[in-house]
Amino acid sequence: MLNRLRDLRDPVHFSFDGVPMQAERGDTLAVALLAAGVNHVRRTGISGAARGPYCLMGVCFECLVTVDGVQNRQACLIEVDDEMDVLSQQGAPSLPMPVDDGEGSKQ
Amino acid sequence: MTVIGGGLVGSAIAWGLARFGVQPLVLDGADLDLRASRANFALVWVQGKGLHAPHYAMWSRKSAEAWPILADALSDDTGLDVGLLQQGAFTFALSDEELDNARADMETIAKETAGGAPAFEVLDGAQTRQRLPHVGTDVVGAIYCAADGHVNALRLFHALHMAMTKRGAAYRPRHAVRTIQPVADGFVLKGDDFSILSHRIVLAAGLDNERLAPMVGLACPLKRSKGQILVTEKCKPFLSCLTATIRQADEGGIMIGDSEETDTSAIAASSEISAVLASRAIRVFPALADLNVVRSWTGFRVKTADGVPIYERSERYPGAFIAACHSGVTLAANHALVVAPQIAASRLDATLSAFSAGRFNVEQTS
């Protein structure tokens, strides 16, 4: 659990899974979530394990969230903003297309 | 017996030897050596293989057909499921010329094998989209072959290593063989800080076979062939079909590959090649445009001068065998189930003589 060293000076208001939250303007979304007490932001696509921000520099892909409807965004590479609608990432994203029903390749 | 090389070819042969009562020593290179086995596209593929080399077309078919036996045997030895899926695959054409060339090659292979190569279908654009509704309109047609499939190549590599060790093979990483010296009772294999006497040896050292083979009266002329692969973030199952250049791995990542550069030895990935791979993939499946690429890598294929494998026993030093090929995944079943038992019995079948490097007419000197 992270604690802020200073009180918020220029607060930004966003939501995570519908819960209103505040952060300091300029925070990355990953830091904003950690500082707000969120310790896991997604469930993995394979085992469903809970995961949270880890490397905070764009390489580990553990902090994936859905931001304003776009799935699998790296929270550590996005600056938190007012009105941002953030959802935890549940499993692997699906592509926005009609999923082939599996009959396609059969004879 | 010593197997030089612990990649897919070396470990498949070592495991096969161990199953036939020969417990080999496997000498492998280091992590930074060029390793096709850790860069491949994981296809169990027969479609289009063996143009003007019908024995290779049939050899590929035989291995693809034996793959379920290999997967079961590996599972028995290790408990690992290598994720074999053989449900057919498409090769897409983005121009009429591409389709015509692919069709001509497939027809030639069918003729040269007297119909022995697996059956295929040629589909036009409409037929392709009828089977695969999400294929883009730039696709003018496709070849479909029911015999093709894929595996999880990393798990295959892991399973082969686990299985060979379990059956008594000894694995020594960071043991690159620098020189091989034939002596009266075998071969002296020397590396940076070791010297090993082995009565019989199998060269399965991938790219390094070219350098090692002449030391034991064999030849392995290779040509440069660099491939590059893009991997996207994992996503829900999207590609129910397999294609020559785009596949969704069993854990969700989509791999895009099949580039070939013949004029470079640089290890780094090229952004121009990545751009071409991505652009072609999006023309085939437009929905891929929404996915992020999270990794890319390159590898050098172990490609002989004519693309056909080399299997040979040295005439001058009969204790030395060589196996070199580009398709370490597809041919893994043959290597473990067919080639290894022959090597264990100190011979190679006459049916493999067409794979001898003598076909290149290179001078075989030591």
State the CATH architecture of the largest domain in chain B.
Answer: 3-Layer(bba) Sandwich
Oligomer: heterodimer
Q: Helix/strand-derived class of chain A?
A: mainly beta
- Helix percentage range of chain B: 25-40%
Uncertain runs of chain B are none
List the helices and strands and how they pair.
The complex is a heterodimer of chains A (107) and B (366).
Chain A: E1 11-16, E2 19-24, H1 29-35, E3 42-43, E4 50-51, E5 64-67, E6 70-74, E7 85-90
Chain B: E1 2-4, H1 8-19, E2 25-27, E3 43-44, H2 54-78, E4 89-93, H3 96-112, E5 120-124, H4 125-131, E6 141-145, E7 149-150, H5 153-166, E8 170-172, E9 179-183, E10 186-190, E11 195-198, E12 201-203, H6 209-212, E13 222-223, E14 226-232, E15 242-243, E16 246-248, E17 254-256, H7 271-284, E18 293-300, E19 303-304, E20 310-313, E21 320-324, H8 332-344
Parallel strand pairs in B: 1-2, 1-12, 2-8, 4-15, 12-21
Antiparallel strand pairs in B: 3-7, 4-6, 5-6, 9-10, 10-11, 13-19, 14-17, 14-18, 16-17, 20-21
Helix pairs in contact in B: 1-5, 1-8, 2-5, 2-8
Characterise the protein shown here.
- The complex is a heterodimer of chains A (107) and B (366).
- With 107 residues, chain A is mainly beta.
- Chain A has one domain (11-90): 2Fe-2S iron-sulphur cluster binding domain, sarcosine oxidase, alpha subunit, N-terminal domain (Ubiquitin-like (UB roll), Roll), CATH 3.10.20.440.
- Helix content of chain A is 7%, strand content 29%.
- Chain A has one helix at 29-35; strands at 11-16, 19-24, 42-43, 50-51, 64-67, 70-74, 85-90.
- In chain A, strands 1, 2, 3, 4, 5, 6 and 7 form a seven-stranded mixed sheet that branches.
- In chain A, β1 (11-16) and β2 form a beta hairpin.
- The relative contact order of chain A is 0.21.
- In chain B, α1 packs parallel to α5, α1 (8-19) packs across α8 (332-344) and α2 packs across α8 (332-344).
- Helices cover 29% and strands 22% of the residues of chain B.
- The longest helix of chain B has 25 residues, at 54-78.
- With 366 residues, chain B is an alpha/beta fold.
- The interface between A and B is medium-sized, with 19 and 27 residues.
